[in-house]
Amino acid sequence: MKTFLVGFLIGIVLLPAGFYWYLRSGNAPVATSAPPMPLEHFLVKTAIHATIDRHEIPIQLTNVNQDSLVAGAQIYQQDCSVCHGLPGQPPTAIAKGMYPRPPQFFRANAKKMDDAASEVYWKIKNGIRLTGMPGFYASLNDGQIRNLSALLENAVSLPPAASAALKNAPAKASEAAPPASKHTRSPHKRT
Question: Is CATH 1.10.1330.10 the classification given to domain 73-167?
Answer without folding.
Answer: no
